[in-house]
Structures are given as C-alpha cells and as structure tokens.
Amino acid sequence: MYVYCQPGSGFNDMLTIITSALEYSNKQNRTLLINTCNTFYKINFSDFFQFSDQTVICDIHQIRSIFASNPSLTIYPSIYSDKLLDILNRQYILDPSTVAGLTNEQRKEDIVIFQKYGGVAYGGGDGYPLFQSLRIQPVIKKNCNERYECLAKPYLCIQIRNKDYKCNYEELYENHKDEIHLAKQIYVATDDKSAIDFFRSKELPIQNFTTFPEKYYYSLHTSIMNPMTKMTDLLADIYIIGRSDKVLSNSKGMFIQLVRMCHRNQCKLIEQFKPEI
C-alpha cells in the first residue's frame, strides 16, 4: 500500500510537505512515493537525494513501473481511479482541493494521493529536519564542493530573496556597511541579479555561482530553466551559505530559516556534503 505525494511550491515547502506525507505513511504502514517531476523544479528527486528510509521511493522510473504493473490498484480519492499514469505524464492535473488532506484516518484503498502547496500563506514549516537526514548524490556533492573551494576563506555570506518576496537589501548594506567592507570575500546568495550588481557597485569582492533566467521571472523556483541547473545551483547555495563565516540577511520566507539552520549545524552539513572517496 502506498501514499503518492506530489509536493508543490519552493524547496523548503517541498520538504515540509514530504515530511507530512512521510509521517502519515509511517503511521499507516504505507510506502511513500514522491514525484517531484510534476513540481516547479521538474526534477527526479532521486537524481539529487537518497532516503535512508527504505519505505520511501523517490525515483520517478520506479513509481511509473509500480503504476504500470499494477493497473488494478484502488485509489483515494476515487476520482483519480485509472488516471495514475496520466498524472505522471502530466496529462491529468491534480486538484489540490481534493488531495490536500492527510489525517490519521485509515484508508482501505491501495494508494492515497496527497498534493499540497506550502509557503508563508499556508503556515510555512521547518524543512531542516528532513533536509539534514537526506543523503546527497555523489555528483551533486562534488559540484557543491568545487564551488566552495573557489571561494577565499573565511568569507561572509549575504543572503537576499527579492523576487517573490521583497527585502530591503540597501538597508541591510547600510546597517552592516563597516562589517561588509572588512570582508575579504563575500558570497551573495540571491534570486535577484540586481542585488549582485548593487553590491558589486560598492567595489566589494563579490562572488556568485547562480544561473539566472534571461527573461522576466517571478521566482527562481518557478522560472523556466534547466531543472538540473536550477536544483544544483540551489544546493550549492545552501552548502556555501551553511559553510560561511557569517550570514547577513533580512529576507522573508522560510528558505532563510532553512539555511540558517544549516549554518548553525555546520558539522552536520560538512558531513552530509562530504565528497566520496
């Protein structure tokens, strides 16, 4: 028996939604199936992460095989009966209003479908507990460490989220001007290229590794970019922020809370991203 989870919104939101689905799955003795190919990131979760929990399947190919080889699986809500493969193929869109609730109620159906969106408007949530438990795939760890090694140490990190949420990074600069100008290396982790341009205009030693869309975008996670690039950039930023000497930010949203927790737990982060021998 399974729970099919299709999380929405940004990265921290996805983590909190998966956490809810995992808690429910464990209570109900079900295997959790996680499909992030139908999210804003459009990635196969297993290309980036592994779970230590063997009751979790996050490879879209395995999920597709389960659905294809078991056409008689019963589904809750029943309106999605016979539509599992269509959902995977994005030929049938889930209605969040029908699949957003997971309670302690036991279901007799073979598959319980769960989709939810996150964010401050939905109450937010702490994605760090799940994130720190994930195993990062070797190629991703290698890339993150290569970027980290390009930075002079120690370095200051300035985290700015200024697209879907706005922050006053000019005020942040004014409030910390002396400290910022003492830094020999500064990594600006941001979703807004104009913020990088602003700090570079102050003749500061700025570095950033993010690939930005060429056209207008509401947020990086909703932007139309290569999925591998988008997620690799995100994880590299998390790692670089977490390993910085200090983080300055006045950003809103839950992502800053996630990276602050990574920064506070640097030893765990270093071990999590430790390159393969």
Question: Mind explaining what this structure looks like?
Answer:
The chain has two domains: 2-122, Rossmann fold, CATH 3.40.50; 137-272, Rossmann fold, CATH 3.40.50.11350. It is 38% helix and 14% strand. The chain contains twelve helices and eleven strands. It has helices spanning 11-27, 60-69, 84-88, 96-99, 128-131, 138-149, 169-175, 177-182, 193-200, 227-242, 255-264, 266-272, and strands at 2-7, 31-34, 49-50, 56-57, 75-76, 111-116, 135-136, 156-160, 186-190, 206-207, 246-248. It has a five-stranded parallel sheet. A four-stranded parallel sheet has the order 10-9-8-11, with helices on both faces. Strand 9, helix 9 and strand 10 form a beta-alpha-beta unit. The longest helix is centred in the N-terminal third of the chain and has 17 residues, at 11-27. The protein starts with a strand and ends in a 5-residue tail after the last helix. The model has no long low-confidence stretch (mean pLDDT 93).
Principal-axis shape: elongated
Order of helices and strands: EHEEEHEHHEHEHEHHEHEHEHH
Number of strands: 11
- Rounded to the nearest angstrom, the radius of gyration is 20 Å
The CATH topology of the largest domain turns out to be Rossmann fold
Q: Approximately how much helix is present in the residues? A: 25-40%
- Mean pLDDT across residues: 93
Oligomer: single chain
Indicate the proportion of strand residues.
5-15%
Number of helices: 12
Going by helix content, strand content and strand pairing, the class is alpha/beta
pLDDT under 50 segments (min length 5)? none
CATH architectural name of the largest domain: 3-Layer(aba) Sandwich
Compute the separation of the termini in Å: 38 Å
Largest sheet properties: 5 strands, parallel
The structural domain count equals 2
